[in-house]
Design goal:
Number of strands: 17
Distance between the termini: 135 Å
Largest sheet: 5 strands, antiparallel
Number of helices: 18
Helix content: 55-70%
Strand content: 15-25%
Structural class: alpha/beta
Low-confidence stretches: 1-9, 576-593
Shape: rod-shaped
């Protein structure tokens, strides 16, 4: 539009300029003619130079070039040109009348031409002004229309956008641009609304995050303010910048009392040194927990446990934080607990001493009861009536049952006190199973229960306490037979699984209810409570079994269904080593008959029982009742074997054993230790040939005597 206006102005200026030049030239030519006329009139003879005439003719021709005359003007110019020719001829002929006539015609025609030309120029100029005015008016209208379009299509929509943007600027994101628009304005509308919507989403998310963060901070502040332990925050110069209420309660300071103070002001010289050592770790970026004493406001030292950590921001240590736990109460409890522990240790020792004493005191008479009952039942001293046999059997079984109870209580006591002694050796698993089955065989036969075993070929030996594992198997087999009806079955399965040897004792018994299985391995949890018709046992057997297995590094579990039977399984870690069997040589063989045995026993009943067992087996036996008499009798009688009770008067069995072993004349005599305490096994290290734990079983006694005397030919 601007270019169009500039073009019109240029065209108008050019036309006006052309008209001005045309009028100016016309008047110039007329003035020239007037000058020529004056020149002619001023001389007696008309003498005009050729140059002046030529200039006049050229001026007329120039008029033709500028004027572009219409047909009438063209005729006038021809007339003027002919007048000039006549003017030239008159001048040449010095004919004044011709010159005056030609000059008057030229002047007249030139005035007509000028008037005609000025009229035409005026009309043309009017036309140019009219066209220019019309064009300018049209351009103004166009400009107004365009401006109206810009106002309605661009400025008004943009004006409606501004309040929305101001609302957004003030935080109100609920407003939206609502205008009807097309093209670029529609795109702007969509972009602005989209931006506002995105801002609203982001603002909502940010508000939610801020709200969550605020809740977290309030929650953490609540936790910190309500925590039992004191909290202290330090700056990089170890000055206190914040504490929690528990800190003030613990030490008696207010927040204003300690803010800005060095943390070292709260410790005495000794504990300050310890704190500085710990702070060296903090400066290295390490955390630590330690016990230290801190001073309260009342200058009372209290023990605390401090858990401290460095505060690191952007890789720079900006401070430290510590949690202080007052352990004064714990220290008091610890002191009281130490006193209680010492009292318990005394009580435990008293209990152990009592059990040790009771084991000896109970085992010894039980040994006599069981032993003499067995001798009577075997009719070694004459016949007995059926009624006597029945009563003696009752005495024998009651003694065996009482002995089992005593053994269980003693084993439980050893487990609880951590005094159960293990003596692991390498032994054959098959021998262990055979011996366990033999021990239970008689009872199984009485109830017509079938016994069987299945041992995997890859199971040979195991490294464990043979007697303890035998006790486990016996206990499980005994329970299996106890809870299996007549004509049932009990069997042992031994296999190797993942390096462990797994023993399983299965039966076709009455089974165990699901709710009772979790109680089986607890002390005094008796299976008989589940089955009142079965009233044997103390409920200690399985708890002892569990302890023995776990102390070996194994585990025990049970699977059972009521009416279908039970399966008890346990594992023993396999540590198999090669066993070299060395056959017995003739050097260990002694007389088969007439072996002389010196029995050293302070309990006369037990001594009589041992002597009876030996004499019935063909041995010659003498009895002494104290240590001094034993040493004298050994030198006098020179027995082949000695049975020695460790708990004898005057000189105890340990002293006698050491004396016998130190004397070259007696060191070769094998000594069989008979004791009511398991610690008697230590005698084997002092040179004893064998150890038998009371109560004495005749079969065990004779077996050991035959072994040491060479009656068993290997």
């Amino acid at each position: 539009m601007l270019a169009t206006v500039i073009g019109l102005r240029a065209y108008t200026s050019l036309t006006i300029g052309k008209i001005k030049r045309l009028v100016a030239v016309t008047h110039t030519e007329r003035n020239l003619i007037d000058a020529l006329m004056v020149s002619v009139n001023s001389t007696p003879e008309p003498r005009i130079s050729e140059k002046s005439i030529t200039g006049l003719a050229q001026g007329i021709r120039l008029l033709d070039n500028y004027a572009n005359p219409d047909p009438e003007c063209a005729v006038l110019l021809d007339t003027i040109n002919r007048g000039i020719n006549r003017f030239e001829d008159g001048v040449a002929a010095a004919d004044r009348s011709a010159v005056d006539s030609a000059g008057a015609d030229i002047h007249k025609n030139l005035d007509v031409f000028i008037q005609r030309q000025e009229s035409m120029n005026s009309r043309r100029l009017h036309t140019v002004y009219l066209i220019t005015t019309l064009l300018l008016a049209g351009m103004i209208i166009v400009l107004l229309i365009f401006a109206l379009y810009l106002y309605t299509s661009i400025f008004l929509p943009i004006k409606k956008v501004l309040p929305v943007l101001k609302s957004v600027e003030q935080g109100d994101l609920s407003q939206r641009v609502d205008i009807r628009a097309k093209g670029m304005i529609a795109d702007i509308k969509s972009a602005v609304n989209s931006i506002i919507a995105s801002l609203q989403v982001y603002t909502n998310q940010l508000e939610a995050m801020v709200e969550d963060r605020t809740r977290d901070l309030r929650r953490k502040e609540f936790y910190i303010d309500n925590m039992h332990d004191g909290l202290c925050v330090l700056d990089r110069d170890d000055r206190i910048i914040d504490i929690n209420p528990a800190f003030t309660r613990m030490l008696g300071y207010t927040k204003e009392d300690v803010t800005g103070r060095s943390i070292f002001d709260l410790f005495d010289e000794e504990n300050r040194k310890r704190l500085k050592e710990e702070f060296v770790k903090r400066d290295r970026g390490e955390s630590s927990t330690y016990e230290i004493n801190i001073m309260t406001k009342a200058q009372v030292s209290i023990p605390i446990i401090t858990s401290g950590a460095p505060v690191i921001e952007d890789g720079v240590l900006n401070g430290k934080i510590g949690i202080y736990t007052d352990i004064s109460f714990l220290k008091k409890l610890q002191s009281e607990l130490e006193i209680k522990n010492r009292e318990l240790e005394k009580a435990n020792k008293a209990k152990s001493d009592f059990l040790s004493s009771m084991s000896h005191e109970l085992r010894t008479p039980l040994n006599a009861i069981i032993g003499f009952s067995e001798v009577l039942l075997e009719r070694n001293f004459g016949g007995i009536t059926a009624k006597q046999e029945e009563y003696i059997k009752d005495i024998y079984e009651a003694g065996e049952h009482l002995l089992l109870l005593i053994n269980d209580i003693l084993d439980l006591s050893r487990v609880e006190s951590g005094q159960m002694i293990f003596e692991p050796t390498e032994f054959y698993v098959r021998d262990l199973v055979d011996q366990s089955m033999t021990m239970i065989k008689e009872r199984a036969l009485r109830h017509y229960i079938n016994l069987s075993q299945e041992i995997s070929p890859d199971v040979t030996t195991v490294y464990a306490d043979e007697r303890k594992i035998k006790q486990v198997l016996y206990n499980l087999l005994n329970n299996a037979i106890k809870f299996t009806p007549d004509n049932g079955s009990v069997w042992i399965v031994v296999s190797k699984v993942a390096g462990d040897i797994v023993f399983s004792v299965e039966d076709t018994g009455i089974g165990i209810p699901e709710e009772a299985m979790s109680k089986l391995f607890y002390p005094f949890s008796q299976i008989r409570l589940l089955h009142p018709s079965i009233n044997e046992g103390t409920g200690l057997g399985l708890s002892i079994v569990k302890a023995i297995v776990e102390l070996h590094g194994g585990k025990i579990w049970v699977e059972s269904k009521v009416g279908k039977g039970s399966k008890f399984s346990f594992t023993i870690p396999s540590a198999i080593r090669h066993v070299t069997v060395i056959p017995a040589t003739g050097d260990v063989q002694k007389r088969v008959d007439g072996n002389h045995v010196l029995v050293v026993e302070d309990d006369k009943a037990i001594a009589k029982l041992i002597k009876g067992y030996l004499q019935a087996a063909g041995y010659r036996a003498d009895v002494v009742h104290d240590g001094e008499q034993a040493l004298v009798s050994v030198r006098e009688l020179k027995p082949d074997v000695i049975t020695l009770n460790l708990s004898i008067p005057k000189k105890n069995g340990w002293t006698v054993l050491k004396a016998l072993h130190a004397d070259p004349d007696t060191t070769h005599i094998p000594v069989v230790i008979i004791s009511s305490i398991e610690e008697g096994k230590e005698a084997l290290k002092l040179g004893a040939a064998s150890f038998i734990l009371k109560p004495i079983d005749r079969q065990t006694l004779l077996h050991e005597m035959e072994r040491v005397c060479g009656r068993i030919h290997s």
